[in-house]
Amino acid sequence: MALPTAVSAYVALIPATTITLVCFYAFIAWTFVISLTRSRLLPRYEFVGFLQYERLFDTARWWQAMQNLAIHGVLFTVGCIVVGYFLAILIDRGVKAEGVFRTIFMLPLSMSFIVTGIIWQWLLNPSFGLQAAVRGLGFEEFAFNWLVRPDRAIFTLAIAGIWQQVGLCMALCLAGLRGVDPNIWKAARVDGIPVWRVYANIITPMLRPVFFTLVVLLSSLVMKAFDLVVALTGGGPGFASDLPARFVVDHILNRQELGLGAAGAFMMLCTVAAVVAPYIYYELSKARRAG
């Protein structure tokens, strides 16, 4: 006997729901429990309250990593969206050899963050990278040694990350632009509205769902950024480009501080919830009111 459609849909969702509950929410709960214990190399269920969180907040490296996360997150997210949207506009305007440009912009997306980090480590190395190449052309005073400068190293992560992910932003923005009603452009030409004003005042607000999707996707990449840091800067010089994900992995695997690492991981989750959740709620509420 065939099940009703509604029941069949719920039955089909059981495997995915079970995997999500076990592999996501159950591990979040387990991480929080471990963060309340004195665990070091292995889990040790000797509960010490919020001692690990006190240790975490007293660690200067953690606050340095959080500061770097804020800088990297803003630069990476805004940079990817702005550059990707600009490239999408250029392609949408009917540039020649569109397929070639789309392939070029999407190519870095096929690389892992490890490969991206290694490539940019070569490019930004003062000894044989971009700086050495420009000086070889006769510009002896040219300097681009951000990779070894504590006050600039964090910006190199944003540069490499934007280079890799801008193709994704370009593709999604281009899809949004191609979905715009052509009659809007016809009406704008009849009214004599400049192209830049159409994009700024009409098209861009229409693409809010696209930007919303990009913010969520890019924010998740920022929070779990680890391999790019390891490959490009190693968190250095010192801890100048350290990020929370590397802090957590380093304390769990290298320093045998499982409890402290779990506390850091749970605080990363809280940071995501505190920053992204209000934005998601605002966008969904606005869409619901508009509907």
UniProtKB/TrEMBL annotation:
The keyword Transport applies. The keyword Cytoplasm does not apply. Signal peptide: none annotated. It is found in: Cell membrane. Its main location: membrane. One of its GO terms (biological process) is transmembrane transport. Pfam families: BPD_transp_1 (PF00528). Residues 66-281 form the ABC transmembrane type-1 domain. One of its GO terms (cellular component) is plasma membrane. The chain crosses the membrane at residues 7-33, 69-91, 103-123, 153-177, 198-222, 258-282. Keywords: Cell membrane, Membrane, Transmembrane, Transmembrane helix, Transport. Belongs to the binding-protein-dependent transport system permease family. This is Sugar ABC transporter permease.
